[in-house]
Write a structure and sequence with these properties.
Blueprint lengths: L2 H62 L13 H13 L6 E6 L11 H12 L6 E7 L2 E11 L17 H7 L12 E10 L1 H52 L15 H24 L1
Antiparallel strand pairs: 1-4, 2-3, 3-4
Helix pairs in contact: 1-2, 1-5, 5-6
Amino acid sequence: MKLIWKFNLVLLGIFALGFLVAGYVSYKALQANAREEVLQHARIMMEAALATRTYTAAQVKPLLDTQMQYKFLPQTVPAYAATEQFNELRKKHPDYNYKEATLNPTNPRDRAADWEADVVNVFRSTSTTTEIVGERDTPTGRTLYLSRPIQIKNAACLPCHTTVEAAPKTMVDLYGPANGFGWKMDEIIGAQIVSVPMTVPIERANKTFTAFMGSLAAVFIAIFVLLNVMLYTLVIRRVTNLAGIADEVSLGRFDAGEFKATSRDEIGVLTEAMGRMKASLVQAMKMLEG
């Protein structure tokens, strides 16, 4: 096998290994960054929901408490306010979702779906768990969800949810006596769940990965071509010329050409040495003939 083929095989092996390693590392990093971006959006949405709940409890509910004797106003409920706020958001961004999933809700729309109930039960079974992050497939694509437990920590919540008799009559008239009762202090009754689509960030990460790998392949090809040109110019062509002249001299054709060094590198030194060897051989042959 010729020297240039051996060199190219080794070079291709190195390039292939580097390409695969760079591809694996960059793909993992881009996917992780995309997921972190989605998770950051989910955290911002969760904080917005908490801010809405706090504002409703502190500033809206006190203003409407007197009217609650005549008509139950769900706008005074922090969970209702947070959900309504995100329903407005979903008019423009339908893939985003916020829900206060509850196992035994007063408002039927808050009832936890099967997978949401599983999240709530994780919080109920492990009280030290304060946050759950996961992914699930939906009809619109992959979605990341962030959830935090809803725990009864304020005794002011209990009058509406302990027994039907203790609850405001206006609330019972609106939602009925079947659901939303029997809650206890410090009990985890549900979970705040924010769902954020991963499709756009993942697609952006994939496009970035494709562009990066294409650029890397172009760089590898350029380096491969340049190294081959350099190898041929600086080594292969000169060695081939030396080998041709040496072959002719070995057959006794001393007029085949001269070993002329054009540089002071290793091949130049070898050329000078072969030139001296040829001169010595010619002189020795003349002495034998004389």
